[in-house]
Sequence to fold (714 residues):
Amino acid sequence: MKRAIERHLNILEFTLASLLRRKAKNFSLLAMYLMVVFMLASLQFFVTALKREAAIILDDAPDMVVQRLTAGRQDLVPTGHAAEIARIRGVTAVRPRLWGYYYDALNGANYTVMAGDDTSAKTESASIGSGVAKARNLAVGDLLPLIGYDKAPVMVEIGTIFPSGSDLIAADLIIISPANFQRLFNLPGGQATDLAVTVRNPKELATVAAKIAELFPGSRPILKSEIQRTYQSVFDWRGGMTLMILASALLSFIIFAWDKATGLSAEERKEIGILKSIGWETSDVLLLKFWEGIVISLTAFLLGTILAYGHVFFLSAPLFVQALKGWSVIYPRFQLVPVVDAYQLAVLFFLTVVPYTTATIIPCWRAATTDPDAAMRY
Amino acid sequence: MIELSNLTKSFNSGQPNQFTAVDNVTLAINPQQITVLKGPSGSGKTSLLSMIGCMARPTSGRIFLRGVAAALPFRQDGADAVEITSLPERFLNEIRRSTFGFIFQQFNLVKGISVLENVMLPAYPTGEGRAEFRARAVSLLEQFSIARLASQRVELLSGGELQRVAIARALINNPSIIIADEPTAHLDSKLSHEFMEIVGRLKGEGKSVLIASHDPIVFDSPLIDTLVEMRDGAIVASRSCR
Amino acid sequence: MRRSLQFLLFTATVLAVFLLLPLHARHEQRHSGGELRQLRNLHVTDLCLATEARYTRHPAMADRHAPFQEHPLALEHFPSGSLILPTRLNRDKP
Fold:
């Protein structure tokens, strides 16, 4: 046992010495490798954490949202429909919602305006997301003029600013009273943007949706499961993000090719011959190469993952901001709650460490099995 | 004591370009002596050495090693000699590591790592503690008065220094037999004489030395005990020089 | 210390940090979510990820032609537009 450990330590010792011989090459290899793992792991942490947030948020979403389509376009729903839908068996509550978009010509941002159902608050009071507050430099108590349909400003007073921890749902929200909402957008009375329907038994959702579609032929019921599916496909491993993974995979392939092309040179082959001739066995040489692969790939994997964790969860993924921000003026600060998915990390491990180590060992196999006396014949 | 009986080594056997490097050699090599294989290049010296050194297997014939049984994890029944041609690979390696030290014509040192590491290299896979063989390596370097070069890279060394490093490396696992293949081919006369001096010292320490060479400085040296002349894979003369 | 032990020590340290990640994550999860929970009664249906267009801001609420209502080239709201597609209803399909 002790001898086996000593053998590993000794061979590892030589591995490190021989890696340090080509410092520039091996450190740049390690750096590139680390970057690939870092990008993949960052992406993975980012997506997994977003998925978790989405799941939590969508948990509170209404069971079903009923829209009305006119000529293929979303149109206002008469609130009268709510009472009829409420009569369908299994429906516990129907709540008309008022919401829309407000384009801020001052800074080019799009806000989401919702009518709050909090009747106790003052009519002029508004709650805004931290993204809006930042974009317009607002504080509690400030007045925010919103330009109405007729260019007449609707003044609202900032009552609450949602904390930045809720950015993921509220960064661009402006919540105003229903009366203000109607004034701002010149909405006729008795109309709603859509209806939020609550159903007692989730199994009946599809049946209820079919009944609503039958009752109001122009309606478009959207189930919670469909919303969840939309987000699944947005965040899914196989979803749009595959793009970036493919790019990373390409990068790792380039590293691999570069390393292997410069890999088993005549000199290295000669070196293996020397080792064999002075008494190293084939298994010793392969162990040397195994350690060589492990030293680079395990270090890159562990460091890359840890750096990615810090990047995503402590620094809010600054490297992804530029890629994901797009044209957005308001961009939520991703203060994500950390999630570690052991399965995905295991996949990452098997995608990075294992192939690299194998690729280090395989080309040496032939060289390592040559007769030890080959070295005598140079 | 090494006994070779009817040793033959052929390459490409059965093909038109078949070539017999060693042809039916029977020879006894005495322990704690210097034996020199003399002959022109292509006479089978290197092939013979690599078979004795457990690096290659003969096509036919047998090799008996006496007095090395202690190095083996097992004993062959009823004999103090080990017949090495029939041993499995891992035992051959074991014997090779513990019994033989090799000095090559080109020295075969690994570039880019230090002299000390080069000397310790054969001990790495043995599983011996690093502190122990490191101490041995340092004392070997001192013995050959190259201790000051311990941390130097080998490519910065002169020919004579390289040779001493190669000898020190051959001795790191404390072998009882030293095998040297054309050790003086790349050395000038002064260094060649120096080499023979060192070989004499090794013999004095109780090592058996086996040298293949066609350099007169080696085979005319007064230090050698037995001279074996080879030609075309066969022994043409063998005489004791004592 | 020998280089091999240094390396193993380094790897062990990094591995320990690596193994602490899930623990840290679990700890953070237990002490978070308060701010989001306050907004529960808003019953939002979408995440505020990409605010540049309504079909990216509310992909679940937009229909398939919503992008083109914005602008004939509206799918060019890169990159969100290429990643986020509006909900596709599957109830009509077998």
Residues 3-37 of chain C form one domain. The mean pLDDT of chain C is 78.
